[in-house]
Structures are given as structure tokens and as C-alpha cells.
Amino acid sequence: MEVVKEKQSEQNAGKRYKLIVRSAEEAVRVIREKLGDNAKVLSVRQVGGEGLKRFISSPKLEVIAEIQPPVEDTKEEIESTLPESLLEEKAAPTAIVSTNNNASDARAPGGKDTPLEDPLNPAPGTLIENDTLSLLQKTGFDQTLLRDIQSWSNWNDFKDLPLADALKHITVGLSDRYRSSTELKTTNKVALIGSPGVGKTTTLCKFLAHEVFMNKTCPMVLKVESGVPNPDDALRIFCEVVGVTLFRQAESVPEATDQAPLYLDFPGLSLSNLEDWSTTKATLDKLEVGTRVLVINGAYDKDVLFKNINTANHLGATHLAITHFDEIANSTKLWPLIIRSNLTPLCICNGQNVTGDFTTGVLNQMISRTFPEELYAKGFSSYQHL
Questions:
Q1: What's the predicted TM-score (pTM) here?
Q2: C-alpha span between 13 and 263 (Å, rounded)
Q3: Domain 110-386 has CATH 3.50.50.60
Q4: Measured between alpha carbons, how far is residue 292 from residues 84, 160, 266, 284, 351 in Å?
Q5: How far is CA 372 from CA 176, 187, 280, 322, 380, in A?
Q6: pLDDT averaged over every residue in the chain
Q7: pLDDT at res. 188
């Protein structure tokens, strides 16, 4: 956060700050957390990276905020100072209720069929207080995850154990439920789909680099329009660097094989326009694409992530790629999403550029980020690598 101008030198009121954020929702959260309830947004503009970064990174918002004299401001008043167009995506999740009715049901770990939870209407029931749950709540554990843990058949067996032992049981339980989900293998035709700004192009570049340098294959890329403009500047530059052939016409693409897999890059699909998703499904079916990877930004709010998955069910998504993992303040919100989505977790990406970390060890990454360091210090360090 950079101080742009100080109107008053001895007190906070009147100070202006510049924030670089990914969305209006993040702007509201950061302003309230860092500047308090008396902050007011003065201006917002979209900014991009410099050089090659502007092709391979998502656009950001530059927000100028000023701390006002103490008044009874609310979150709604802060939001009202942001441009209406920037709040459209934030308001979109309210449509989950209407789209969730048509989404595929997810199978719970115990074998019972339960629909993917609507985060705006969470499952009824309150948490039964005990020392372990109280501590996990204080450290920011996701409420849905805590309710799930409390519903496990062996919960009564470990709920009153010492913290280290209880955390061990939780870790083993999460790992077992992750492994019990059906794991779908990838095919030689892989499509990356998702809403705008989640990092699809960057993720695709990481896949291509992995294929070329680790798997020693010769991947191909098909840039698909699907009724929506899909510029290829960033991807074309990267393909030239690593020696990957980029196609714009499906008719020109040679037959995909295990040694020459085909990756398909689609334009960003708006969550408010199901017609785009339906058109994309028709294209995927026509091209006989078996692996359909939904790319999500893990730093987004949980309700937005659930809506992405519910919507992706309409086009037969098979796998899940999580980006911006290093920017997630609370990774526990991802556990219900991963376990219930019926999508096979494929990879986790850190960083917003092609040189950032890329790993297919999703379970290890999730376990290592689930429990805060202060819990390890209380006796859980020996279970950190389970």
C-alpha cells in the first residue's frame, strides 16, 4: 500500500492511499481491514502490467482511498463509492439459487447423495462447541468444513482428545475423503475453461511448459473463438518461445496423440451468460474433448467459486485447476468445494506469471496450508507431512 498524499501530518484523517487489487470485492475487504470504516474511495481505474506481463497477467484495479473523520460508515457506504460496473461480478453470486437446481449432485464421502451446498443458504445446524472446534474457529477454519467434520461418523471418537491427536484425525479424515473421490485420468485433448480473469492463459502456459520440459512431449494449442473474441498475443508469444504450434482453425489441427496432446484455450465465460457456456459445451462435444478443466481463482470468495462449479457442470467439466493459491488467506474454504464438486483436482498454481509454481500434488498443498503454524506449535508438527 503506497501513501499518495497526506493532508494531515499528525493524524490519519485526510490521508490518501493507493491500493492495487484484483476486484471490487477485494477493494472493499482491504479498505475495511487496513483503513477502517472511515475510509472513502476517491477513484478507481484499471491498470495492467508492463512488457510481457501485460499479456500473461490479469488486469488490476488501482483504488485511491482517503480516511475520513470518524463517522458511522458501513460496508454498503464503501461499496457505494465504487463504480457500479465493477460491482456487477460481486453481485452475480445471487444467481446461484436459480442455477444450482440444475447442477449435478455431488456424492458425499459417506456415500450419501447430497447436492453441492449453496453458500448463500448454508446447511442448517449449529456447531457443537468444544475445545478443538473453538480453537479452529478462532484460527479461521471455514464453517462449512467444521460442520462437515462434526458430521463424520468417528467425530465422537476424537472430539475430546488432546489438540494434536484431534488434528491428526482431521488430517487423516480429509486425506481419506480426498482419495476416495473418483480420479479421472486426463486424455490427449484438454480444454481450459473459466470466467474472465481467473488465469486460464497463464495456467495453460504452465501446462505447456510442463509438457515440453518435463513430459518431453510436443503439445499443440488450438485457440477457440466460440462466439467470443479470443486474442492470442500472449499465448502466441509464449508458444513461439517454447516451440509449440498454435492453431486458430480446428480443421488445421493434426490428430492428437499421447506424444502430441492438444490443448484448447477458450475465451473467458461470463457467469451471468449461460448461453456462452452452452455454446462452449457444443464446441467441446463437436471436437470430442474428453478433459474439460475448470480454472478457478482460489482467492475469490467461496460463493463465487461455488457458482463457477455449478455453472461448469452444465458443460461437463471433469477436472479442477486452482490458481492464485499463494494469495489465499484461508485455504480451508476450498475443502468442501474440492470434496463435493465431483471434479478431479488437477493442479495448483502459485503466482500470476508463467514462472510461478505449478504442482499436481493438490492434496499435499492443501494439507500443508490447512493448519496455521500456531497449531503446529501446539503439538501437531509431527503430522505436518501426512
A1: 0.65
A2: 53
A3: no
A4: 33, 43, 11, 8, 23
A5: 21, 37, 40, 20, 10
A6: 76
A7: 96
Q: What letter represents residue 14's amino acid?
A: G
Average pLDDT over residues 148-171: 89
Q: Is the pLDDT of residue 276 over 70?
A: yes
- Tell me the C-alpha distance between 99 and 76, whole Å: 26
How many other CB atoms are found less than 10 A from the CB of residue 216? 8
Of 57, 45, 53, nearest to 20 by C-alpha is 45
Say if residue 252's pLDDT is above 90: yes
Q: Are strands 262-265 and 245-247 parallel, antiparallel or unpaired?
A: unpaired
pLDDT tens-digit profile of 62-80? Answer: 778 887 766 444 445 444 5
In the block, residue with C-alpha cell 480420479: 183
- Helix or strand (DSSP H, E) at 357: none
Answer for the pair 302, 119: CB distance below 8 angstroms, yes or no: yes
Residue in 282, 256, 277 with CA at minimum distance from that of residue 187: 256
* Per-domain boundaries in the chain: 2-82, 110-386
Outline where the chain has alpha helix (H). 24-30, 53-56, 75-80, 88-91, 96-100, 131-138, 143-150, 155-158, 163-180, 200-213, 233-242, 274-286, 302-312, 334-340, 362-370, 373-375
The span from the first CA to the last CA of the chain, in angstroms, equals 37
Task: Count CA within 13 A, CB hemisphere, residue 312.
Answer: 27
**3-state class percentages of the chain: helix first, strand second, coil last, to nearest 5:** 40, 20, 40
**How would DSSP label each residue in 186-254?**
P-SEEEEE-STTS-HHHHHHHHHHHHHHTS----EEEE--TTS----HHHHHHHHHHT-EEES-GGGPP
φ and ψ of 29, to 5 deg: -65, -45
